[in-house]
Amino acid sequence: MKSRGLLVALAVIIVTACSPYKYYTLKSNQGDFSAYKTYAWLPGLDSLSKSYYNNAIAEENIYRSADEALKARGLTRDESNPDLLFRYKAIVNNTSRTVYAPMYGGWGWGWGPYWGWGMGGAVGRERFRAGHIIIEAIDAKTKKIVWQGRGSGEVRSPERAVNDLPVVVQNIMKQYPVMAQK
Q1: What is the DSSP letter of 180?
Q2: Burial of residue 54, with CB atoms counted within 10 A of its CB: 0-12 exposed, 13-18 middle, 19 or more buried
Q3: In the sheet that 145-154 helps form, which strands lie side by side, from edge to edge?
Q4: What pLDDT shows up at residue 28?
Q5: Most C-beta atoms within 10 A of its C-beta, which of 13, 125, 153, 181?
Q6: In order along the chain (182 residues), what is the average pLDDT of each group of 10 residues?
Q7: How far is CA 89 from CA 44, 49, 66, 152, in A?
Q8: Alpha carbon of 5 to those of 2, 8, 9: distances in Å?
């Protein structure tokens, strides 16, 4: 039974290591994050882009995953008198990236400044859809944003984008300045 649990853990590590999402965070240097004990949710922000996340299932995935992460960090949800107000914004937009031609070479010969395999010159642009989940923490007294976390990556289908939300939100919340309690 232990080997099965180990295999599951290894699979999770491999999948998250190959995650198509990248994570970013910003925080205010003005606050002591350990002083925040309670939080509430503001309604999600509307986006002007096409959004795969504009449905009740996506919203539930975001709230539930973030609530679990905040609870693990010692925060309590309190709608009547919160220290922090959280909100999220979910965006899907069309963007493009540079496509490079492969550079072939071998030992002792090749094209370009390097020997062996590598990337050649840019040959064009490729269009793709990018998904962004942004979670912000706002100090309830000052009404200023004190923390922002974002997960951004390529989205290929609406179903997968929504099903990936719990993992994306958990990885965003790992960036929150207070460590999870054990």
Answers
A1: P
A2: middle
A3: 21-27, 145-154, 118-139, 84-103, 38-41, 76-77
A4: 86
A5: 153
A6: 49 50 88 90 73 83 95 95 94 78 55 53 77 94 95 89 92 89 66
A7: 6, 11, 13, 12
A8: 5, 5, 6
Tokens 């007294």 -> residue: 141
Q: Which residues contact 142 (CB under 8 A, 6 or more apart)?
A: none
Largest CA distance in the chain: 71
Q: Token digits for 19? A: 């995650």
HSE-up of residue 177 (Cα within 13 Å, Cβ side): 16
pLDDT at 87 (0 to 100): 95
Q: How far is CA 33 from CA 36, 64, 121, 179, in A?
A: 6, 21, 46, 10
Stated as kind and residue range, the H or E segment containing 25 is: strand 21-27
19-96+129-173: which CATH topology? Double Stranded RNA Binding Domain (3.30.160)
Question: What global pTM score does this model have?
Answer: 0.74
Altogether, the residues listed in the chain come to a count of 182
Strand 105-106, strand 109-110: pairing = antiparallel
Alpha carbons 103 and 80: distance in angstroms, whole number:
61
